[in-house]
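User
New here, explain this?
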Amino acid sequence: MPTLFPSEIQNICGCDEAGRGCLAGPVVAASVILPRDFKHKLLNDSKQISKKNRDMLRKEIEEIAISFGVGIVSPAEIDEINILRASIKAMHLAMDKLSTKPELILIDGNRFYPYHNIPFKTIIKGDTKYFEIAAASILAKTYRDEIMESNHNSFPQYQWNKNMGYPTLAHRAAIKTNGTCSHHRLSFRLLKEENELLF
């Protein structure tokens, strides 16, 4: 992955989110500041990495990071403010938890709201281009998966331990059969057919 920023910029923060396209559960974002010389042959977009390697990378990232934070926005707030604002709010919440102030923020995607006047750059597919964003992707994904696995224990009918809240056929079939629960995003189109939810 390239390093295209001046060496005098030491604290570069990568930000990414997980769960934006899900039908249930929170949106979770992470922010990570890595040492500038950090490299890892396995580190990439979390969706391209096995669960075993994601869990291993999470431990390494948390140990070596200069600072990291995780932000969570609930399904209810997603319904209230919309998923774009919720995703960016989760990133801001994650950066609120940093113990070191970043000099530059790298955002995965093409939308962001300024954070405390710190310079930022949005990057399409940034999690495949910069270690800082890839590391944030790993943390966001693993933290969110833990939440959904915990939620599965209370609502096993939705199989969140397998689909993590994404709109799989099995998840939608479970919604059609069982209706929604408190973890579903009611502002989303939960079924392809209209008016087929059971409340």
Remarks:
- The first helix runs from residue 51 to 64.
- Residues 12-178 form a domain with the Nucleotidyltransferase; domain 5 fold (CATH 3.30.420.10).
- Confidence is low (pLDDT under 50) at residues 194-199.
- The beta strands are 12-18, 27-33, 67-73, 104-108, 120-123.
